[in-house]
Design goal:
The structure is a single chain. The protein is mainly α and 174 residues long. Helices cover 58% and strands 7% of the residues. It contains 6 helices and 2 strands, in the order H-E-H-H-E-H-H-H. It has a two-stranded antiparallel sheet.
Amino acid sequence: MEDRESAIGSAAALIGSIALRIIVTAVMVLCIFVAVRYCYRFGHDIFYQEPAEKPPGTDFSLTVSEGDTLTDVAAELKKMGVIENEKAFRIQGILYKTHIYPGEYVLNTSMTTKELHEKINLSEEEYESKAAQMTAAADEGVSGGSDLVDEAQARAAAGEGIRVETDANPGGGQ
């Protein structure tokens, strides 16, 4: 009788051990599946740019304030529904060497994330040159020509009382 109980106990322990191994293996497979799926989606978000809308899309204005970072811009674009993944946008900013400078940018919902980065990215020299031109024009009370700034920058400058003339706004405005 004792041998029979011992055999039943051994069989139960063996079945329990096998069941535990199956459960642990299933959990590991599930974790690996979820991790691979997340990594694939994240890589897809970084390297496959899909616009929020099909062309022609909708123009919108993005204002970057002094001290804003790429994280702030990504959060604002996410809030506007233009991008889906803020972290992927920030990593793209590192890959594309995006430098964020204050100003108002006119963007479109049909732009890919790469196009968004290209539009908001200025080299430090470009930014300093445009800022110096606008400051000089303001100090001298002279209207800047359309070759100095684009229309979005002209609207931003007009908001600060700087008279700027563009092709779309002959004669300037305040």
